[in-house]
Amino acid sequence: MTYKNINIGESELEIMKVLWKAGEPVNTQYISEAVEDKGWKRTTISTFLVRLVEKGALSVEKRGKLYYYSPLISQKEYRKSQTKNLIMSLYNGSIKDFAVSLFDEQTLSDNDIKELKAIFEDKEV
Amino acid sequence: MTYKNINIGESELEIMKVLWKAGEPVNTQYISEAVEDKGWKRTTISTFLVRLVEKGALSVEKRGKLYYYSPLISQKEYRKSQTKNLIMSLYNGSIKDFAVSLFDEQTLSDNDIKELKAIFEDKEV
DNA sequence: ATTTTATGACTACGGATGTAGAATATAGGT
DNA sequence: ACCTATATTCTACATCCGTAGTCATAAAAT
Fold this sequence. Notes:
The structure is a homodimer. Helix content of chain A is 58%, strand content 11%.
């Protein structure tokens, strides 16, 4: 539990996702290919990497002449902290209000609801 | 459904919360008192108000010599859009993954879970 | 050895946000 | 009519984020 509330921007997050998915240290080339669809310039990606390292979201290691990056924050941790933030800031910390709102109107499809019911009903307390 | 994805900053959100809670147009003085605990200077609050109006998050109306503000975005709408954003960006849009993660580890207390079960079990599809 | 290519470092710049000081307007009291 | 307290506008500034250009360096290709 060493997670300090690090802010990760939207674009930076895309980089994190690549790293989380990779599951092992990868180099810039790998990352560049993985985010090709974003159309970012090479230097843009570099900037994101530098900033993520500065923020403590990634670690970097030089192997030969290339840098390899790995996440210092797990996707799980990050998801959890972001979800918590949302519930705290928008629902005064009430999970219940939050769940109620999830049901509201078109937020969920019938199928979503089915799935959720299944999940919750299985849950033992 | 006129909600365009307006970005509201963290501090600005505090102002919105006051307005949502108030439920009727209120003036700057009212707002100032409501956010006293934040320790913001008067001009800071003014700036937030001006920006929120510019963004289309608030409407403003002059009554006599004072300005009265009211939200143009409902709390419900805003919550919904933010929740959706979170699920889209962190869980690839999968409500299911999201719910599963909610259960993960210490995110929920036993009581939270009880409440949620109750809510979900009541839900008809 | 010289040229091209890949990689990384440094610098920049505009917009958003948090924050507030200075200047101005306005109303109310005297 | 003048002073004072309060409200509003304008301007400013630092930080973060998205984005990228330029320069340097090193390796690979010719």
